[in-house]
Specification:
By secondary structure, this protein is mostly helical. The chain is built from 7 helices and no strands. About 50% of the residues lie in helices and about 0% in strands. Helix 3 crosses helix 4 and helix 6 packs across helix 7. The N and C termini lie far apart (about 80 Å).
Length: about 130
């Protein structure tokens, strides 16, 4: 029996031993930091001043979700995300008149991708990138 226990596997480990598994790469974790009262004040004043949650998150090196959580905790009403039905109706009219998605987005203060998604949901046929119908 001792010879069996002293025998080795093909990988060089002993048969009687527990096989060693390859470990997964270490996960790099960034330590979380506590928000200061100055951070909270900056978030509230920046958001009230029209700065987006995304921009605040980048500036303070936080996630957008953290910014939203702070604003909600402090009782701040969040601005509407996306477009209202009337804004989508306006976007459809502007797009059909020949305006680009980017220009419509600028006019409505949203990303052109938001405009495109909403137009597609409403069944609007998209032009190709050169302004001609498909």
């Amino acid at each position: 029996m001792k010879r069996v226990l002293e025998a080795t596997r093909d990988d060089g480990s002993e048969i009687g031993s527990v096989p060693v598994r390859a470990t997964s790469p270490a996960v790099v974790r960034v330590p979380q930091r506590r928000l200061t009262t100055d951070d909270t004040a900056r978030i509230i004043s920046g958001y009230a001043g029209g700065i987006s949650m995304k921009a605040l998150a980048e500036e303070l090196q936080l996630t957008r979700q953290t910014i939203a959580r702070v604003l909600k905790r402090e009782g701040i009403t969040l601005r509407q995300i996306g477009l209202s039905d009337s804004q989508i109706d306006d976007a459809i009219q502007l797009y059909r008149s020949g305006m680009s998605l980017a220009k419509i987005g600028e006019k409505l203060a949203v990303d052109h991708g938001t405009v495109r998604r909403q137009l597609l949901r409403r069944g609007v046929a998209m032009r190709n990138s050169h302004g001609r119908g498909r």
